[in-house]
């Protein structure tokens, strides 16, 4: 088997600008969330959740965190079939 040399990755100016903008957005969300948790008020918590793109208190749970990660990477888990007829269909001999 032939070995291939590692692929070269190029970092472009657009990539760094996009990274900086995403980083600033995340820092702003984190700052707003910390202000909301510090006791500013209940109404601000709701507004932060709406602004945060639906990331609410459920994201702190393991299932909510897993859902956010799956959504971010585009993974849609399918339940595994538990019975033989669902695995093989309706085979008749």
Give a brief outline of the structure:
59% of the residues lie in helices and 0% in strands. It is built from 4 helices and no strands. It has helices at residues 13-40, 42-51, 62-73, 84-88.
Overview of this structure, please?
It is found in: Nucleus. Pathway: Protein modification; protein ubiquitination. Its main location: nucleus. The structure is a single chain. With 93 residues, the chain is mainly α. Helix content is 59%, strand content 0%. The protein has four helices and no strands. It is flat.
Architecture blueprint of SSEs:
Elements lengths: L12 H28 L1 H10 L10 H12 L10 H5 L5
Helix pairs in contact: 1-2
Distance between the termini: 44 Å
Tell me the Rg in angstroms. 22 Å
Main beta sheet: strand number and arrangement?
none
Would you count the extended β strands for me?
0
Average pLDDT: 74
Q: Please provide the ordered H/E string of secondary-structure elements.
A: HHHH
Q: How many helices?
A: 4
**What percent of the residues sit in helical stretches (DSSP H or I)?**
55-70%
Strand pairing plus helix content: what structural class?
mainly alpha
Strand content: under 5%
The unreliable regions are 42-52, 54-59
């Amino acid at each position: 088997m032939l070995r291939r040399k590692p692929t070269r990755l190029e970092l472009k100016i657009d990539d760094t600008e996009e990274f900086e903008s995403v980083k600033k957005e995340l820092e702003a969300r984190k700052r707003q969330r910390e202000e909301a948790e510090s006791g500013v008020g209940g109404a601000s918590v709701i507004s932060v959740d709406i602004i945060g793109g639906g990331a609410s208190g459920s994201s702190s749970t393991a299932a909510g965190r897993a859902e956010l990660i799956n959504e971010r990477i585009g993974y849609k888990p399918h339940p595994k079939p538990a019975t033989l007829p669902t695995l093989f269909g309706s085979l008749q001999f």
